[in-house]
Amino acid sequence: MPFAIIHNARMFYRLQGNSGRPVLILSHSISTDHAMWDLQVENLLPHFQILRYDTRGHGASEATAGEYSIEMLGKDILALADALEISQFAFCGLSLGGAIGQWVAAHAPARVTHLVLANTSPQFVPRTNWETRMAAVLKGGMSAVVDLAMQRFFSSDTLTKQNPHGASIRSVFLGTDPVGYLGCCAALRDLNNGDLLRQIKAPTLVISGDRDVATPWTGHGERLAQEIAGAKVLHLAAAHLSNIERPHSFTTALLEFLLPPLGPGTDSLRAGFEVRRAVLGDAHVDRAIAATTEFTREFQELITRYAWGTIWSRPELDWRTRRLLVLSITASLGRWDEFALHAKAGLASDLELCDLKEVLLQTAVYAGVPAANTGFHIAMEQIEKKDE
């Protein structure tokens, strides 16, 4: 397991993705661990090298005795980045992670390229809330406050539906070392980042949950947005752990904020050819280019610029999902040449036979059995060609 000795503690971390990509650090809430971000990682990995870690006192990181401070926790992550030779990074933190992010961005401005502050605050008041919680854990352990925490983490709808990710958070909460939990409670109890906010220069996105009773917009997210120059704001219909209650909206917000937009100087034709080759394969694209005439050139450029350079290039859906949508739509409309092309390309890349089967069963229900029947025949032809 990847560990690093940071200051006086052993810290667990996970560094995922291709080296050379921009680094994104994800920092979790109190009483959770790095797995809190599981729902985001798959869609972020094509674009970033992702560093997740267990905050001191949480998960597999060591729970050192005594009260912690946000400064201590901020220095922990800067030291971990140093140990991994990461000079610059984007930082996304939720709740406790967002408090840490504020400190890091203010004290290491040259290192933070972008900052995302989700469901967090510059000051978690009143102090008595934390003192009451700490007293309860000292007396009865983590189980003494788990129900209260879950009601703050998630909306009643999520709890009623028995969301499995919510159940996982509960399990992690109960498994958190009380020593580490109490240390981080003290850090949040004593937090007052108000004087730091105007020192933050990184482009900042503030995410607030409309159902968040732990850090509601008024007095928390609102204050961050007002005092951090140029901060953007996103409101989600979610409680405190908004990345779990609204995972796709949260991830989309990260992608749209962190990835550079296609500006006026972007060569959409070149970008389109790169995506087209990646999705359909070099052989197909080379044949299409060779067959292009002066009569068809503008049409080929149109679909390359807009279908591939604009729509397929959008990061909000991964290519596997887009492949499945194309297969479903082309089968439903009887566009069998396109269906065969994308079935062949998909099977040569990230689709499996079970994916084709499910698309065609769905097609049978919503577009009719004849369409699905033709689709199965074409799919079988592609499978046989693949096996030859």
In short:
By secondary structure, the chain is an alpha/beta fold. The chain is 54% helix and 12% strand. An 8-stranded mixed beta sheet has the order 1-2-4-3-5-6-7-8, sandwiched between helices.
Structural summary, described in words:
The protein is of the alpha/beta class and 388 residues long. Helices cover 54% and strands 12% of the residues. The protein has helices at 38-44, 70-83, 96-107, 127-140, 146-153, 156-160, 164-175, 178-189, 217-227, 242-245, 247-258, 268-280, 282-291, 297-311, 319-333, 336-347, 353-367, 369-387, and strands spanning 3-6, 9-16, 23-27, 49-53, 89-94, 112-118, 204-209, 232-236. Strands 1-2-4-3-5-6-7-8 form an eight-stranded mixed beta sheet, sandwiched between helices. The longest helix has 19 residues, at 369-387. The chain is elongated, with a radius of gyration of 24 Å. The model has no long low-confidence stretch (mean pLDDT 95).
